[in-house]
Q: What sequence folds into this?
């Protein structure tokens, strides 16, 4: 009997560790082919983060992880897409913490994609620059995967003035997705 992947949110770790995996790649393929923008709202511990990581591996063309799964023969593994993955699972308690966290996340994506962005003052402009530079460098449209898109607001829900300030900061950040639509292949927010 295979081990249960309790608490594991990394697709490759489940596959390489021979954990039990229920094949959801047909759902992934259907979403990818049917939509450009997806919002996925499900309860906690429902597998959203794992699904996001699975999508990342699909778009990055990691075919070896999908041996024997439905998507293996249905996906064009010759084409790889640059993926910007953002998770707001950490605590954010102020506009300044949000700003620092956004730069930390964006810097991690720049490093993984081997891209250097010049913008150092405004994380929203850095995000826009990262999207455009990823498109230019890889000659493919960009994939954006955002996990726990509203957690910074929910972390501050009892402090309404701060929650509103953070909401406005996140809204400005997400606006860059819409502004850069011409560079995007797919975007999913959970």
A:
């Amino acid at each position: 009997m295979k081990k249960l992947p309790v608490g594991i949110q990394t697709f490759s770790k489940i596959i390489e560790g021979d954990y039990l995996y229920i094949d959801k790649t047909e759902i992934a393929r259907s979403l990818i082919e049917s939509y450009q923008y997806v919002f996925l709202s499900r309860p906690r511990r429902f597998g959203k983060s794992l699904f996001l990581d699975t999508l990342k591996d699909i778009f990055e063309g990691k075919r070896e992880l999908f041996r024997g799964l439905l998507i293996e023969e249905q996906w064009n593994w010759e084409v790889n897409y640059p993926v910007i993955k953002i998770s707001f699972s950490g605590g954010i308690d102020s506009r300044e913490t949000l700003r620092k966290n956004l730069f930390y996340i964006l810097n991690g994506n720049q490093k993984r994609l081997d891209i250097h962005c010049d913008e150092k003052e405004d994380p929203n402009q850095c995000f826009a620059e990262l999207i455009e530079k990823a498109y230019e460098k890889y000659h493919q449209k960009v994939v954006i995967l955002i996990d726990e898109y509203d957690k910074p607001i929910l972390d501050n829900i009892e402090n309404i003035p701060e929650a509103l300030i953070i909401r406005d900061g996140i809204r400005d950040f997400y606006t860059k997705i819409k502004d850069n639509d011409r560079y995007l292949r797919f975007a999913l927010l959970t």
